[in-house]
Write a structure and sequence with these properties.
304 residues, alpha+beta, Ribosomal Protein S5, domain 2, four-stranded antiparallel sheet, 10 helices, 32% helix, globular
């Protein structure tokens, strides 16, 4: 727990973590008539993220800190959530939200969506809001395609345009090495430039598969069969991504290396956290200006 979290906990603030999201697979099924893209993705969450502390107060105030706080410009998704809470539930006096921004912005690992989801979880606790899983996903979808799965923050399969989220039956814990070379990629421009078929209707909820991963090898085999369909477009915008993936893939013990979401964060999976941490140390020495971090990809049993 960071010093920020420890300090504000003494003031009886509520705490949530915006866990980093990893797209282990990402299949783009097609573009709908309304312009949105249907997709399917197996998603995992790291044991690291941004920290949110909510203190009581009148109105709403957002205070930023952390390594990537300066990267946040203009309105963010949390502001949209605040307006929705006022409109839908008459909640105006939210308080002071302290956001410690530890994850790079626009990096394909949740970012603003994870922050918005963590804030919604805070609001549920603070004001005793009661949502079913489907209601939670429906409300969260209003703020972005990744918000519903980030609300769950557990290994899951997501489909539709992100609104269909189902927890995985089984998923193992494993080490993960994350690397972001500090280049910016626009998710909007990546999706806009995709050459994909037009479809009229998305998958139904009852078509969501029952997925079970007993070991790391099962996850790796799934990823080989279902790569990230956005990689080609991201490489055109940021060719360095290919170099980063190759570097991670060359780290001893790496089982597979891929791009998460629309980038530019790349990751490698390892049997253990120790192996991932050893790889992070070597890459940090070579690229001090990159964001390099070792973590654990959480299992189904891990509590968020």
């Amino acid at each position: 727990m960071s010093d920020l979290t420890s300090g504000f906990s003494k003031l009886n603030g509520l705490h949530e973590t915006a866990w980093a999201k990893i797209n282990l697979s990402l299949t783009i099924l097609g573009r709908r008539l309304d312009g949105y893209h249907e997709l399917s993705s197996v998603v995992g969450f790291c044991d690291l993220g941004d920290q949110l502390i909510l203190e009581p107060g009148r109105g709403f105030d957002l205070k930023l800190s952390g390594r990537f706080a300066s990267s946040i410009e203009g309105e963010n998704l949390i502001s949209h959530v605040v307006r929705a809470l006022a409109s839908d539930f008459g909640i105006d006096d939210i308080g002071v939200l302290h956001l410690e921004k530890n994850l790079p912005v626009g990096a394909g690992i949740g970012g603003g969506s994870a922050d918005a989801a963590a804030f919604l979880r805070l609001m549920e606790r603070r004001f005793d809001l009661s949502f079913s899983v489907d209601e939670q996903a429906s409300f969260g979808q209003r703020f972005g395609a990744d918000v519903p799965v980030c609300l769950l923050s557990k290994p899951a399969f997501m489909s539709g345009i992100g609104e269909v989220v189902r927890p995985l039956d089984k998923f193992p814990s494993m080490g993960i090495l994350l690397v972001n070379p500090g280049v910016g990629i626009s998710t909007k421009s990546i999706f806009h430039g995709l050459d994909c078929p037009q479809i009229e209707a998305g998958p139904k909820k009852n078509s969501v598969p029952s997925l079970r991963f007993d070991c790391v090898r099962d996850v790796v085999e799934m990823m080989k069969a279902c790569p990230n369909d956005l990689l080609k477009a991201c490489l055109k915008e940021a060719p360095i991504i290919g170099h980063v993936i190759e570097m991670i893939d060359g780290v001893p013990g790496c089982q597979i290396a891929r791009l998460s979401g629309s980038g530019a964060t790349c990751f490698g999976l390892f049997e253990s956290f120790e192996s991932a941490r050893a790889g992070a140390r070597s890459l940090k020495e070579e690229h001090e200006d990159w964001w390099v971090c070792a973590s654990t990809l959480k299992s189904v049993r891990d509590v968020r």
